[in-house]
Design a protein that fits this description.
Helices cover about 30% and strands about 15% of the residues. With about 350 residues, the protein is α/β, with parallel strands linked by helices. It folds into two domains: about 10-265, Aldolase class I (TIM Barrel); about 275-335, Antifreeze-like/N-acetylneuraminic acid synthase C-terminal domain (Type Iii Antifreeze Protein Isoform Hplc 12, Alpha-Beta Complex), CATH 3.90.1210. Strands 5-4-3-10-9-8-7-6 form an eight-stranded parallel β-sheet. Strands 1-2 form a two-stranded antiparallel sheet. A two-stranded antiparallel sheet has the order 11-12. Helix 1 links the parallel strand 3 and strand 4 (about 45-50). The chain starts with a strand and ends in a 22-residue tail after the last helix.
Amino acid sequence: MKIANHNLEEKVFIIAELSANHNQDYELAKLGVKVAYEAGCDAIKLQTYTPDSLTLNIKEEKFKAGDLWSDEYLYDLYARACMPYEWHKPLKEYADELGILLFSSPFDLEGVDLLEELDVPAYKIASFEITDIPLIKYTASKMKPIIISTGVANIEDIELAIATCKSVGNDQIILLKCTSAYPATPESMDLATIADMSERFNCEVGLSDHTLGNDAVIASVALGAKVIEKHFTPDENIETPDGAFSLSPKELKEMVKSIRNVEKMVGRVSYEGKSKAYARSLYISANIKKGEKFTKDNVKSIRPGDGLHPKYYEDVLGKIAKEDLIAGVAMKHDLIIK
């Protein structure tokens, strides 16, 4: 599968998630695009919503946010975390100018329409929206790759989301293993699910990571993740809503470097022996006169690997030398009288 010109089979697709770390400061958001580009990420992802896209303006206990924001009401949190819609176009143009992909997570149909006008290369469905079937159906109908986080989903939720995409003819589906906690703990990650998701749902699979550090990211790439999404902050010295579980610019760059190294290490299935020249082989270990027999006293299996394979050792013993030989000569078939 491809996202724009990026082939997931050839290279892990790395997404820098800006989330609410723009702090409703356009210059900070623009810096985020630059930081993601300079770190070597393939894409920067925004979130496209207003507080009314997500919840009601009601001040009741059940409308309180959780995790890091337990003292805030949902509406107030989203009001201070959302990115103004008028920023999307100049940020997309800036990303295009730098040469980094920019796309977003829409949270309502109006958000999808805005992003379609900008011709984004893909869409992301956030974990808590995986049950919003009308949103998924409308987004998938745009026939772009659709990346779906599964942080709050069970198998039936995932199956329904996939079926919804396919019902409008879109099979460009990427599932992200995700733990919807902020931050997520190592023991909550269950990265073994990545391989199962790939087999069970026959989709490309990746990781949306909310842990601190990069251990989960590195492990997931080794386990076959094709897409990595990680929150970052453009400036770690500025307090932002998602800053507590976001990478600094330096850490983001280090993550990209580690991913590229790990995917090289994963490589392909290969049983080809490397450095065979230094493996063991048969050598003359003591001087032999023409007509003498090869014995355990004058033939030995040693390094390097220029002589006969050691599997011929028993065959060689008792055979007759064709010529005078000195210690250190690599044993060959043509040294034996047939």
